[in-house]
Amino acid sequence: MSIRKSVIKIKGRPASPGVGIGKVKIVSTLQDFRSFESGDILVTEMTHPNMVIIMLKAAAIVTDIGGLTCHAAILSRELGIPCVVATKLATKLLKTGMVVEVNGTTGEIHQIIL
Amino acid sequence: MRKKNYPTWIDDYITSSFKAVKNEVPVRWGPINFIDLSKYYQDYFIHKLHLAITQIKLKKIPFSTVGLTFSNPSTLRAAISFLPGEYIQTKKRNKKEFKQVMEFLVDVLKTITHRDLFAISSNIFHTQPQLNKLMKSNSWQPANPFIAKQIARLNVAVSSLVFSLYGDFFQHESNDVYGPYDLSSLGFSHSTLIIRHFSTLQPYEIWPQSKNYKCKDIKVYLVYRDIQYDISFVGMHSISKGDLINQLAYYNIEIDGKKVDVNKQFEKLITYFSKITMKQSSLLDQLSSENLKIKSLEWEGYQFRGLFKLANMSWKPEHELIHKVQGKKVSEYYELTTAPTYTAIANDYNSEGFLLKDLYK
Q1: Mean pLDDT across the stretch A63-69?
Q2: Structural domain boundaries of chain B?
């Protein structure tokens, strides 16, 4: 099986270092929580406290807005998982089910084609 | 060099504000734009604080006693940071009152912050003797990555609860991070102590159901090896460099003063806090915009509850204050997409720095 990175590349502000690979789960409402599985990539406009349960399952977190001291960034560093914030368009460009690599050191997100 | 005609804390305030904003943008704070809301009652709250402070001065209550009424240094620092924003919007500015309020609160802050008053890079709440005593205690447990991860999960769960109790603007009331404390002088080379303190987790005066929450105070003591930890303005706005999971060397956790066993109790605690966060978050989300306004007034008053009590005054928003915000249009979020420059914060007309320096002209 060959693996390659696609041209879909999103750049945001690196907020917690490391690399995480997993399936994108766009989360905007409570309904989206149900299908969130351990190891998924949480992609959301910005994290909300009610996302605590899925944040604890996420392999990485990507947000449209937020700085280095936003909720998502601080908690990702605590958990030791990659986080990229301020991507502006991640929730628009990524789709639930896509497999992506989130690089929290460079701030880049690539789609992975298997 | 020309001598400055204003106190040095103003420069520290500006430097720390600039650094904090630079790290926070693009920012969106909610669930209601507190800055926007405050334009409807700006002068009222500053005047109320001035009345309380006048009473406290008449009673000759020491600054240090007032300092003990705040949950932590960051909540006072944050409160101080909001006041110029309220004063900016005041139509009939009372410069003398505002100056007295700011100077009093800064003097109080000095009694609970032992260095780096406005937390340009650290939040020093403990004295050296307190640190010596703390490090000599036999409560320290060796850490490993599993334990570090469990502690991180608990921190995430409790931080989220705090977020849902106080919203974006007033989380400092219940979530502070003290340090970083360099332990090399105590014989722990390359080691740093960080203390996370979740206080006021049962603010039943503003959320009655929180009286039933399991605990009201959590202290998490963490000794890391070879990490960098930087704090700006408020403790919870920390930026770390290094692996917080693999470089945790020792830890100690106290819930309501009692030591906690990570292996035996943590999974249940994490589940518990995650569940009550969901419930609390739902309560916050269900508030109507009118009730969110009142909640914001309560949040603002609540952080000064001890100060008002010393003055025999109520921290609760009065009918007159509530009346000022009822029916008024307020945006949902405070948004900032780009960070202002240092010069803008320090000198622009009506900036925080400009207003504070203007008090001394």
Answers
A1: 96
A2: 8-117+293-358, 128-285
> Per-residue pLDDT tens for B255-277?
999 999 888 888 999 999 999 99
Distances (CA, A) of A9 to A62, A87, A89, B30, B208: 13, 11, 11, 30, 47
Task: Give the closest-approach CA distance of A51 to chain B in angstroms.
Answer: 8
Is residue B242 scored above 70 in pLDDT? Answer: yes
Say if CB B169 and CB B114 are below 8 A apart: no
Which residues are paired to B28 by β-bridges?
B335
Contact B339, B21 (CB under 8 A): yes
- Which of A56, A65, A68 minimises the CB distance to B23? A68
Give the nearest partner residue to B23 out of A52, A53, A67, using CB atoms.
A67
User: Closest Cα of chain A to B310: distance in Å?
Assistant: 34
Task: Choose, from A11, A23, A57, A71, the residue flagged as catalytic.
Answer: A71
For residues B42-50, average pLDDT: 92
Name the nearest CA neighbour of A69 among B152, B34, B75, B26: B26
Task: Give me the DSSP letters along B67-86.
Answer: HTTSS-HHHHHHHHHHHHHH
Q: Give residues with Cβ within 8 angstroms of B125, minimum separation 6.
A: B72, B73, B112, B113, B114, B176, B178, B195
Alpha helices in B214-351 (DSSP H): 262-286, 289-302, 305-310, 319-325, 342-347
**ipTM > 0.90 (yes/no):** yes
Instruction: Give me the DSSP letters along B168-213.
Output: TTTGGGTEEEEEEEE-GGGT-TTEEEEEEEE-----TTT-GGGGGS
Which helix (H) or strand (E) covers residue B243, if one does?
Answer: none
* CB-based contact B151:B268 (threshold 8 Å): no
Q: What is the pLDDT of residue A89?
A: 95
Amino acid at B143: A
Alpha-carbon torsion B107, B111, B117, B123, what sign? negative
Q: How many residues does chain A have?
A: 114
- The pair phi, psi for residue B21, each rounded to 5°, is -65, -40
pLDDT band at B57 (very low <50, low <70, confident <90, very high): very high
Asked if the A4-113 domain carries CATH number 3.50.30.10, the reply is yes
Classify residue B278 by its DSSP letter. Answer: H
Query: How many CB atoms are located within 10 Å of the residue B263 CB?
Result: 10
Q: What is the DSSP letter of B287?
A: -
Q: B156 vs A68: CB contact, 8 Å cut-off?
A: no
